[in-house]
Amino acid sequence: MLGEDITAAGQVDPERFREGQRITWVSVGVNIVLTAMQVVVGLLAHSVSLIADAMHTLSDVVADAFVLYANRKGAEAADEEHPYGHGRFETAASLVLGLLLAATGTGILVSAAGRLQDLGSLPPVGVAAMWAAIFTLLAKEGLFRYMLGVAERLRSPMLVANAWHARADALSSLVVAAGVGGSLLGFPFADAAAAIIVGAMIVKAGVGFAWDALRELIDTGLSAEEVARIKGTIADTPGVVDLHELRTRRMAHQVLVDAHIQVDGRISVSEGHRIAETARASVLRDHPEVLDVLVHVDAEADLDHSPRTRELPERAVLLAHLRQLLGEELPEPERVVLHYLGNRVEVEVTVDADAAASCQRRLSERLPDDPWFEAVTLLQRVAPK
Fold first, then answer.
1. In angstroms, rounded to a whole number, what is the distance separating the alpha carbons of residues 374 and 340?
2. What's the rounded Cα separation, in Å, for the pair 10 and 235?
3. Contact between residue 166 and residue 205 where contact means Cβ atoms under 8 Å apart
4. I want to staple 380 with a disulfide (CB 3.0 to 4.6 A). Which of 97, 264, 332, 353 is the partner?
5. Does the reported pTM lie above 0.70?
6. Looking at the predicted structure, is the pLDDT value of residue 314 above 60?
7. Domains along the sequence of the chain with CATH
């Protein structure tokens, strides 16, 4: 098995961590300023919806604090308890933020339904509330575009989810603007109607993010196209005869891969190891999203996992049996190489040149009916001059 370099597999990109922290702190600053502005204007303009939107914005500060913690925790290097790093903290944060988006949208839907049932009691609001809502809308939309651009470049689902959370806030500010505008124009129902549409959009986005995070937490594999590209890279490695049982799973913005490769069953262990290392290095080089690759080397296609192969005896038993075939009176063979291939064993054995002829006669008599050995190749040891 390969992939034992735990420290290398769990390395953290410090620049990615710093950028994730930077955009989240920008979000915190913007949300704090907008919350204060909305509360002040909402109280002066008697706008209940603007004050409610201020509470919604304040909840984003809490969400941003959670993102800051998850981003810092996810950037920690691998350790004994987390040999692949802490990237799943980002996945968990994406799940929570997705649920928060869905809850926000549900709250807007409930609020809109209540307004539709009691349109006559809606208090008049001042024009200042409209300007505050428009300013909040523009600020949130700008924050969303900035955060989404950075998040997509960093390939961080958690930061993408947080960016869309900012878009949800922009849409809720649009609801406030529509409600204030409708009140000023004499159409109080416009606020509730817009809230229902926007609330449904927010719920859909939140459920989507939560579902993607959940799929990652249950180790859903990559798409067929992505798997095919990784397969192609491994299959093109010199020395790889076949490839099977390739599995993938995501961990935050990165991917873990494990695969079984078939090599020539008669090459040395060290050569098989080198082929596997070459395949691993090729995947890491050609697929930047891959964090680590675990490669298992097979001497033959083992998809059937033949029970007969598993019943073949271990080396010590086979060596004792070989001694009986060759003649126990002969000197101990200098070197014996066993090849477990199919349901049988092939042997390469080095013997003294003087004993080769005797061994060959014994094998010709006994080997055809042998229960374990398919073939025994005799190599003669030449005495040094």
1. 10
2. 26
3. no
4. 353
5. no
6. yes
7. 6-217 (1.20.1510.10), 224-298 (3.30.70.1350), 307-381 (3.30.300)
